[in-house]
Amino acid sequence: MVDAEWVAAAFGLRGDVRLTVVGRGAKGRLSRLDAGPAAYALKELFREPDLAVVTAEATATAVFADAGVRLPRCLPAVDGRFVVTPPDGGWLRLYEWADGGPADPARDAERLGRTLGLLHAAAPPSDGPRDLWFETTPDAADWAAVGLGAHAAAFTALARLVRPVDPARQRVCHRDLHPENTLLSSDGELVVLDWEDVGPADPDRELGMVLARWHVRGDQVDAAAVRRTLDAYRAAGGTGWPRDESAFAMAVTADQNYLLRQARVAADPASTPEELAWAGKEIAESMEFMITRPAVDELLEISARAFAAR
Questions:
Q1: Which of 39, 73, 89, 304 is 20 to 30 Å apart from 240, CA to CA?
Q2: Cβ–Cβ under 8 Å, residues 294 and 219
Q3: Which H or E run contains 41?
Q4: Is 0.70 topped by the overall pTM?
Q5: 104-143 burial by CB neighbour count: b if 16+ within 10 A, else e?
Q6: Is the pLDDT assigned to residue 303 strictly greater than 80?
Q7: Using CA atoms, how far apart are residues 208 and 248, in angstroms rounded to an integer?
Q8: Which of 212, 131, 117 minimizes the C-alpha distance to 167?
Q9: 22-35, pLDDT tens digit by residue?
Q10: How many whole angstroms separate alpha carbon 235 and alpha carbon 300?
Q11: How far apart are CA 280 and CA 184, in angstroms?
């Protein structure tokens, strides 16, 4: 357990401190840190972060917050660092605390579109290196090695729509905007969490991935929610649009690479019970929600009609 008093001293927090574990994600364990009347989110990272990526996150979130995107800013320690290491090891980050409840993909479709539209309207160009996580997919041998060989043909067929990104299209994007990385605040605003994956992407592809993650469940597409998201996105100044099947390349690569990562954890005899439980849950959800070719075709039809209507 992290020493709350040590954390408070490292980040210059005042008042009585109390630390309460509230959950975990793919990259770290999250706790609420109360210090006097103020509350913060403390993340214990599972792996050492790339400090250049952390700095880029801090810079980008400041830009997006100024543009009206609701988000918890990352906070520096008293020595200016955004990542600190306690005496017993590990890596800690501190954020503003965000209160709220879960967002609903259908009910909050307009909020989603507005938020992503504001984000893309403010997104600066990026000359950062292209991330192969979003441009390559596993092969049949990878799937066979983790016991998913029966799905290899379907996964490979869908991967054929993945093409290289045009560097001129790259902007700074969130790159992991799914429902569990958001909250609905008490005043009805969508709050965007977990910016650790911020980096270069084509807004067309991030929009395609967001539509897939919020409004698709396998072959099933919530067409009404997709239309509401697209309308709100364009009204807020969003610059992307699903022009062709490559707009869903980011959804395909992220889904397949994440599934493979969790399947490897599940197949690793060295994985801890906690890691195995998390991997099992994520594998089941990935298989249930992963986008399919019929869903891609339907999303393209809806997007084309929405674009023509404007």
A1: 73
A2: yes
A3: strand 38-45
A4: yes
A5: ebeebbbbbbbbbbbbbbbbeebeeebbebbeebbeeebb
A6: yes
A7: 5
A8: 131
A9: 988 888 999 999 99
A10: 19
A11: 27
